[in-house]
Amino acid sequence: MKISGSYEFNVPALKVWETLMDPQALEHCIPGCESFNPVGDGEYQAVVSVGVGPVQGRYSAKIALRDQDPHRSYRLTVEGSSSVGFANGEAVVTLTEQGDKTTVQVDSDAQVGGTVARVGQRLMGSVAKGMMDRFFGCLREAAHR
Length: 145
What we know:
seven-stranded antiparallel beta sheet
């Protein structure tokens, strides 16, 4: 499942980057996040509750920020599992600065399996895009503080 999004921030790329690298901002902005703990340089262990249609899952996830080019781009990898299935994915996050504004482009590809994929298959794309939109909307607010 491929999902893309573009998000405008009214702050320079440095401020957006700082927000994207701030564990507290990430924990606060990830929809359904119950815990978010650093386990290494750019690596985190998280617990996230996600509902897709009638299927609710509590995912244990490994999150890593790789190939960091500060203020420009990074690759995000996620490996999550729960009693209702799994979700693994990768996204390339690119920041483009124009004056005091920054556009964040996200291009992701995810694989989902188990009960959550069988029951909620038709809803998966819209649920994932909605979560991504909420996440970046929250980060936009955090970057403007």
